[in-house]
Amino acid sequence: MPKTLLIIGAGAEQVPAYQAAKARGLTVVGSDGNPEAPALAWADHRLIASTRDANATLAAVQAFTAHNAHAAIDGVMTIANDVPYTVAVVAQALGLPGIPLQAARSVSHKLLMKQAFAAHGVPCPWFSAVADAAELARLVHGGGDRRFVIKPVDGRGARGVLLIDRHSDLDWAFAESRRWGDCGEVILEAFTPGLQLSTESYVLDGVAHTPAIAERNYEHLERFAPYIIENGGTIPALLDAAQLARIDAVIAAGAAALGVREGIVKGDLIVTPEGEVVIVELALRLSGGWFASHQIPAASGVDLVAAAMAYALGEPVSAAQLQPTRQRATAIRYWFPPAGTISAIHGEAALATLPGLISHGFFRQVGDQQPTIRMHPDRFGFLIVEADSRDAALQRVQQGLDLVHIEVTP
C-alpha cells in the first residue's frame, strides 16, 4: 500500500509539494479552508478546514481517518504556509514525526521566539513587547535617532510590518500594526542595517545544512515606507566561506534554542557591517516565494521539498543529499503597479522567449483591483530566472520585468 501524506494548505505555492508527492506514488490528503484551493486538484482526498485553526484541522483529520481505515495518515507537512503549530498538533495527535509543540508555539509568536533566542545567547536584534501606543512612544523616543520595526507577534506576509522612528505617527503605527495580528500583541525591534538574507536549511543531528542563500532585495524600502516590502531575492548572496560557516552555526543555535535538532528551518538573517550574523526570525517550515520548490533546486540541485517529505514520513535524510551538486544563480522579482482597476496586461507572451525563465505568475487579471502596496500579498506577480552567474541572472530578471506592462485605471 502506498503511504499517505497530509499536506496542510493548498494554495498556489503548495502545488509543487502536491505534485512531488504524487510523483512519488503517495496518496495525498489536502487540507485547506477554501474548497476551491488550486492544489486540491492534485489531492486524492480533500479536507476543508482553516489551516490556521489547529483544532478544526485535527478534527477534520480524525473524521477522515475514522471513515477511511485503509488510508491512515503516515506523515503531515506544509510548504509556504505559516502554520507550523497546526502541523505539530496533527503530528503529535497521530504519533507522527514532527517538531515539538513548544517549538511550534514559539515560532508562531515572535516574542516567544526572541525570548528563546535571548535566553540561549543566540544573536538577534534588540526587541521589546509593546502594550500600547504610549509605551511605543517611550521606547522609540528613548532610542534617539535609531529606526525600529514594529510588527504583530503572529503576523505573516509582511502584514502590519512597519519601519518607524521618532518622527513617525506612533499612535497610527501601533494601531496599524496591531490590527493585522490575530492576538492583538505587537513587538518592537531595532532596525538592523546590513546584508539581508533568506536561508532554507535542513538541520540534521543539530547541524544546519544550507544549500543556498538568497540576498533579500529591499530596493523599494523608501518608496513603500513605512511598509516594509521585499522585492524578491538573488542567489548566490555575496558571502565568503567563513560567513557561510557562521550562518550555519547561528541557524543551528537558533534551532537548538527552540528545541529542534532535526527538520526544515527557514531563516531571515542579517550580516551586520561589523560581520556579526543575527537572526531576525526563524520558521520551522518550507518557505514561500517558490524559494524551496524552484530557486534552491535550480541554484544548488538540492531538493529540500523531498527532504521535508521524507522527514514527515519518518524516512531517513542523509547529509549527502543536502550537499549542493551545482552552483548556478537565480533571481526572483515582483511587479508593483499603482493602485486601481487593471485595464490591460501587455507582454506576458514575450516572457516565453526570456533566457533562463524558470517560472512567472500573476496574482490578478484584467478587471481585478490592484491594491495599494502595504504587504506582500499586494504584489501583482513574480518572475524567476536562472543563469550561470549572478550578474546574468540580474540582467535577465530585469529584462523580464521590462517586457510586461500593466495598465491601471486609478
Short structural description:
By secondary structure, the chain is of the alpha+beta class. It has helices at 15-23, 54-67, 84-94, 101-107, 110-119, 133-142, 170-178, 241-257, 291-300, 304-312, 390-403, and strands at 4-8, 27-32, 45-48, 75-77, 127-130, 148-152, 162-164, 186-190, 195-204, 207-209, 213-216, 233-235, 263-271, 277-283, 329-335, 340-346, 357-362, 369-370, 381-387, 405-409. It folds into four domains: 4-96, Rossmann fold, CATH 3.40.50; 126-190, ATP-grasp fold, A domain (Dna Ligase, domain 1), CATH 3.30.1490; 193-326, D-amino Acid Aminotransferase, Chain A, domain 1 (2-Layer Sandwich); 328-410, D-amino Acid Aminotransferase, Chain A, domain 1 (2-Layer Sandwich).
Give the overall shape, derived from the CA principal axes.
globular
Counting DSSP H or I runs of 4 or more residues, the number of helices is 11
Number of strands: 20
**How many domain regions?**
4
Q: In CATH, what is the homologous superfamily of the largest domain?
A: ATP-grasp fold, B domain
Tell me, what is the CATH class of the largest domain?
Alpha Beta
Low-pLDDT residue intervals, each spanning 5 or more residues: none
- What is the CATH architecture term of the largest domain? 2-Layer Sandwich
Distance between the termini: 56 Å
Question: Keywords, please?
Answer:
single chain; alpha+beta; nine-stranded antiparallel β-sheet; four-stranded parallel β-sheet; 11 helices; 29% helix; globular
